[in-house]
Design brief:
This protein has 135 residues and is mainly α. It is 83% helix and 0% strand.
């Protein structure tokens, strides 16, 4: 990011778009090759420092004590890390494994779309606040 002089918001937007594309491919194109490509895409874009990049965006829009911002951000990340497996377990119990996997993929796609919409909103706000585009 630093070498390319990219805004962290641009990276979050790209990660969200690529995640949505990978999930859409898995949900609608039922081929093994697509699944392997989607797995590679999800791994690559999640390993790109999504947690740190998201925290950089929080710090950009909410300057102040980094410890407070980090604590709030990590609290919500921890809650998501706990709740998603709980939801997966409940879906598996109620509807069976195959149906639960499909439902979770749809849920993750909805979250990816929400991340895209949120990122686009922040891109518009970035232009208003800082006077230049984040892209």
């Amino acid at each position: 990011m630093a070498k390319l002089k990219w805004n962290p918001l641009k990276v979050v937007l790209i990660d969200s778009i690529c995640t949505a594309v990978a999930l859409t491919g898995v949900l609608f194109i039922h081929q093994v090759a697509i699944i392997y490509i989607a797995i590679a895409m999800l791994g690559f874009f999640a390993a790109g420092g999504a947690l740190q990049t998201g925290l950089a965006v929080v710090q950009l829009f909410n300057p102040g004590p980094k410890g407070r911002n980090t604590g709030i951000y990590y609290t919500f990340m921890g809650a998501a890390s706990y709740l998603i497996p709980v939801v997966a377990a409940q879906l598996t119990k109620s509807s069976g494994e195959a149906s639960a996997v499909y439902s979770l993929m749809i849920m993750l796609l909805v979250f990816a779309i929400l991340a895209i919409l949120s990122s686009l909103y922040l891109v518009a706000q970035h232009k208003k606040i800082f006077g230049k585009s984040a892209l």
